[in-house]
Amino acid sequence: MEHLKLLNDALYMNKSLHLPPEFFRLVRTVKKLTFATTKFPWSEADRLGQLESLEVLKLKENAFMGDTWRPEVGGFSQLQILWIERAELETWEASNLCFPILRHLVLVSCDKLNAVPLELADIPNLHEMQLDNTSKAVKYAKDILNEKNRNFNLSSCM
Known about the structure:
Blueprint lengths: L2 E5 L13 H6 L5 E5 L3 E2 H7 L7 E5 L3 E2 L2 E2 L11 E5 L5 E2 L11 E5 L19 E5 L5 H20 L1
Parallel strand pairs: 1-2, 2-4, 3-5, 4-7, 6-8, 7-9, 9-10
């Protein structure tokens, strides 16, 4: 299996869901994974970093709940595209050690997100960030762009 979408159609669910351990055995080779309205805790997202073939991760419509995500260092080793849409996320702490080859970051309607982690500027492959309705974090995205440009100019002078 290379592509998988998990969608929750229970609109008013009060029960907290968790990914079963078998899930990770079944999707070992998945390259593209999408979650929508699954409302898992952000700690479950860290476990996705263990999927060695995962290249595209789309988290839509409150796929994960909570206000803080601190991905584990060393995870998401093959992730190239990360899409987060309509998340309650306020604090996101990440670095190039969490997403070493990320190329494209999309944040849509993450209006509570205070900042895009400046440490993402250290990801050499990160070439594109798209922020829509994520106004609080725009300043930090610009800081990342400036830092990447500064690093590029320094390396081209050597």
